[in-house]
């Protein structure tokens, strides 16, 4: 069999190769540094990098695959995507070029052979590491963990330099009451006795009640309000919307100006849901207590990003993490394991397990 060339893109944790090496007759190369095809120079560099490969392994939306990129890649036959969707891949163009686009489920495998090779398991159905990470960031910020950890390690006399903020009984505003929004809200109700307000463009109280019942909570646990009321009344606002043309900058100057001075905004969804300039101005002015951000308008953050220098300009408290919500050990390994399984199937002329086009 002819050796197939496979490029692994954006594997920041360097875990993919061990899964692909189990497939015979492939030559593997790794490219952990992300190139952005949104600029002409980035497009040229990315097209040049990809020229020799028949298969490329991608991780979510880290490297976009627009039509203009794929048109320059006549050898490309398979794009291995991690997760069940990826808005940054032009699936229509891939289909026109005869490129197979695969997806992954990220579920615990039933095959014991595959199960035993995973270092950890993905979260069970109904649970998400994004919710875990969102709560971890929120609690860390409200309990001053980053500031106090840094002070104790770097300042010999540091001790109780500020006050933490209690969360029990506060009001949690959920923007987007889907699976992740419900997961976030349920913990707020059960663990902290929080009042939950919810808003999205198509939400009603009837739908909010159905969402509560789906989480084994009584009707009325989630209260539907309009967007302005949610931002005015919430002590914590957490975003859980899919990014689209309609939802881009759905949180802008007006919403941020409506928030309490003691309130916190959490974004584990997508950076562009918030108007970046408006958020930076809000944090510079210190008109809200803080922000916990796992997602950004540019990813990875450039060395020149203002988010790398918040200690120099922010009056509000800011906690940052590098889009880690979904990056749990079990799911990441399982996604690459599924990609490798699909490579083996494709090389045998078989149908891939999850096809996106």
TrEMBL record:
GO terms for biological process: amino acid biosynthetic process. The keyword NAD applies. Keywords: Amino-acid biosynthesis, NAD, Oxidoreductase. InterPro entries: D-2-hydroxyacid_DH (IPR050857), D-isomer_2_OHA_DH_cat_dom (IPR006139), D-isomer_DH_CS (IPR029753), D-isomer_DH_CS1 (IPR029752), D-isomer_DH_NAD-bd (IPR006140), NAD(P)-bd_dom_sf (IPR036291). SUPFAM superfamilies: Formate/glycerate dehydrogenase catalytic domain-like, NAD(P)-binding Rossmann-fold domains. Residues 136-325 form the D-isomer specific 2-hydroxyacid dehydrogenase NAD-binding domain. PROSITE patterns: D_2_HYDROXYACID_DH_1, D_2_HYDROXYACID_DH_3. Belongs to the D-isomer specific 2-hydroxyacid dehydrogenase family. This is Uncharacterized protein. It comes from Recurvomyces mirabilis.
